[in-house]
Amino acid sequence: MKIVLATSNPHKVKEINEITTQFCVDNNINLTESINFILPPTDFNPDETGETFAENSYIKAKEGWNLSRNWCLADDSGLCIEALNGKPGIYSARYAETPQKRIERVLKELKGIENRKAHFVCHMTLINPDGEIAFSYEGICKGSIINEPKGVNGFGYDPIFLPEGYSKTIAELSEDEKNQISHRSIALREVIKYLTSFNRQV
Ligand code: ITT
User: Fold this and answer.
1) Is the pTM of this model over 0.85?
2) CA–CA dist 138, 53 (Å, integer)
3) Which residues are tagged catalytic?
4) Which residue, of 18, 80, 90, 135, is most buried by count of CB atoms within 10 Å of its CB?
5) What is the share, in percent, of the chain residues with pLDDT greater than 70?
6) What span, in angstroms and rounded, lies between the C-alpha atoms of 134 and 181?
């Protein structure tokens, strides 16, 4: 089953492939027979005009479908900080020009604020070859924001995010460790469960 990954973010592509491979190994599923992610046929950059992760995820999945008429999976994700009323939220990728400047902006806005609670959200939408939503799921990873970046792994806001129950940032965890707890893996595992049960019926 070929599925277009409706994203232009190479970090997401890498994580989605790794999480899928691990899920299939753990569950004795033949990966190549069940799921084969491919990239959109042309440059992919739809306008994210939605007001929620769910809306933007749908916009991206639908654009991927428009370009391919194939199964399409989109991920809209971001960091929501309680003391900033949920910001950067759906604007996470657009909060400043570069990943480093985005982190600097968040840390500046949180300066002197005691409440550091935050969570990552990943909303995934899967569209079938008829252009209809087949499945969608929102994964959440709870944690807090530390005072200065630590670690070099992962991407985006990983260096300032301490997952609940951990004393390391996500950027200090290995890829495998991140993939066990991340918002993306929580959502993607549900998508794969849907796809593999669906695949068995056809
Ligand atoms: P596509 O829309 O092409 O998929 P994008 O990077 O623009 O790529 P989003 O609009 O979903 O994707 O924005 C996601 C942003 O949220 C991302 O650029 C990071 O800044 C942040 N983010 C999402 N998941 C993250 C993760 O696992 N670790 C760190 N930051 C993350």
Assistant:
1) yes
2) 9
3) 76
4) 90
5) 97
6) 25
